[in-house]
């Protein structure tokens, strides 16, 4: 073997060795990252054991166009993102899910959302799992508002129901009447009671309602929570 051939062979061996090291490092980083994600998921699920629950009542499919269903999927996705990033997350149940909505959620990989249950069961059946809890159906049309004075964090005893209804202005009082039918207490978010004025009405998107609940539990301040969540174009 000539000197130049030997040098070329040694260079090739060096390249192969470096490549093997890089591959090994890459595999180790992936393994470490996966292990970290698993640990984070386990810790997240432990936190959820003592967390409040948000139930999104989606049994209004007959009121929705295909476009409405797409909007509902987007709002649910944003809601999950807010919950997942919170230091004090909520458990979420999406009930009364139609086939159209299920297909839309499947496209977002919603079946992999941690701490979220997606079910076709209607609200009345789901609530059988929550006897002796503090259950409130949130409705902008309610005469009552959530307590402003307590500054106490919500716990696993607290269950909030949010109507999974798009274009609520068109169906005024529908969620309120659903709650009355099920003999549930109703309340609205304390928006005006917190000194916040909106530039149109007080009917919020689903993700704004859920986001406000999540941020209140972090801040223990409704005004701060609402200002954090509500888009600037909506408030005066």
UniProtKB/TrEMBL annotation:
<dbReference type="GO" id="GO:0052905">
    <property type="term" value="F:tRNA (guanosine(9)-N1)-methyltransferase activity"/>
</dbReference>
<dbReference type="InterPro" id="IPR007356">
    <property type="entry name" value="tRNA_m1G_MeTrfase_euk"/>
</dbReference>
<dbReference type="InterPro" id="IPR038459">
    <property type="entry name" value="MT_TRM10-typ_sf"/>
</dbReference>
<dbReference type="GO" id="GO:0005634">
    <property type="term" value="C:nucleus"/>
</dbReference>
<dbReference type="GO" id="GO:0000049">
    <property type="term" value="F:tRNA binding"/>
</dbReference>
<keyword id="KW-0808">Transferase</keyword>
<feature type="domain" description="SAM-dependent MTase TRM10-type">
    <location>
        <begin position="34"/>
        <end position="236"/>
    </location>
</feature>
<dbReference type="GO" id="GO:0002939">
    <property type="term" value="P:tRNA N1-guanine methylation"/>
</dbReference>
<keyword id="KW-0949">S-adenosyl-L-methionine</keyword>
<keyword id="KW-0489">Methyltransferase</keyword>
<dbReference type="InterPro" id="IPR028564">
    <property type="entry name" value="MT_TRM10-typ"/>
</dbReference>
<protein>
    <recommendedName>
        <fullName>tRNA (guanine(9)-N(1))-methyltransferase</fullName>
        <ecNumber>2.1.1.221</ecNumber>
    </recommendedName>
</protein>
């Amino acid at each position: 073997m000539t000197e130049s051939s030997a040098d070329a062979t040694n260079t090739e061996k060096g390249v192969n060795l470096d490549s093997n090291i890089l591959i090994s490092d890459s595999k180790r980083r992936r393994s470490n990252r996966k292990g970290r994600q698993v640990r984070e998921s386990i810790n997240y699920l432990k936190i959820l054991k003592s967390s409040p629950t948000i139930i999104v009542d989606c049994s209004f499919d007959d009121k929705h166009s295909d476009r409405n269903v797409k909007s509902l999927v987007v709002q649910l996705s944003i809601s999950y993102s807010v919950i997942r990033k919170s230091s004090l997350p909520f458990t979420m149940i999406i009930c009364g899910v139609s086939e159209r909505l299920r297909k839309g959620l499947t496209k977002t990989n919603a079946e992999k959302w941690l701490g979220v249950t997606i079910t076709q069961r209607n609200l009345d059946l789901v609530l059988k799992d929550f006897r002796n809890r503090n259950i409130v159906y949130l409705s902008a049309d309610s005469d009552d508002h959530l307590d402003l004075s307590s500054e106490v964090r919500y716990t696993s005893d607290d269950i909030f129901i949010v109507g999974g209804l798009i274009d609520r202005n068109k169906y005024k009082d529908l969620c309120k009447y659903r709650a009355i039918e099920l003999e549930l207490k109703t309340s609205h978010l304390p928006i005006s009671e917190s000194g916040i004025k909106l530039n149109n009405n007080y009917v919020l998107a689903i993700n704004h309602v859920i986001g406000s609940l999540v941020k209140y539990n972090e801040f223990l301040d409704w005004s701060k929570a609402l200002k954090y969540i509500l888009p600037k174009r909506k408030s005066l």
